[in-house]
Amino acid sequence: MDERSRITSFKDLEVYRNTYRAMLAVMKEIVCKLPGNEKYDLQDQLSRACKSIPRLIAEGYAKRHQKHGFQKYIDDAMAECNEMIVSLEQSRDLYPKNVPVEQCEALIDIYDKSGRQLYKLGNAWTNFKAQKPLP
Fold it and tell me: What is the pTM of this model?
């Protein structure tokens, strides 16, 4: 999608599409390969965090007309991106024989980029909403 294309749905946001694809990769390539003793810790944390990011973006988009409502969801999605980075680093460093290290690195990069995109989206939306309407 061209950067200048009109955004008519949360699905038009690149950050949503990237985090949704990353969620699929985390669930299919990482979570299922962690040892059983991580079921209630790292597996659970990765599973919940990766699924929550696209959900938060979608929910925030629905509240885009509310400055504080929108920003809260964007901030929460950024926090979940940071949590994903740490959890993926832990998976990579604790279980390099179980999980694909290169896949962890690629996902860490996606979540890092997504966090920055969310920050910019929040700022851009705040600046857009702050503009006075033309006479």
Answer: 0.88
